[in-house]
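[step 3/7] fold_predict: job queued, chain A
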Amino acid sequence: MKARVHVMLKDGVLDPQGEAVRHALGGLGFGGVSGVRQGKVIELDLADDATEDTVKEMCEKLLANTVIETYQIEFV
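[step 4/7] structure written:
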């Protein structure tokens, strides 16, 4: 079984990488982009008996900094 964890900075948290991408897009002629938020995707290969609670625990303990980041779990 596979799970994908999507991690993003919470709204209101400064995203310097996203701002750099937004600025670079403008420099390349892509106007109209008023904001960019950059995150990460973590793909996990899990044992068939793994549960969503197990993946949540992984996120809370290691994969996401829950003070400044949110996460979503997707099983694929």
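[step 5/7] annotate
The chain has one domain: 2-75.
The radius of gyration is 16 Å.
exit 0
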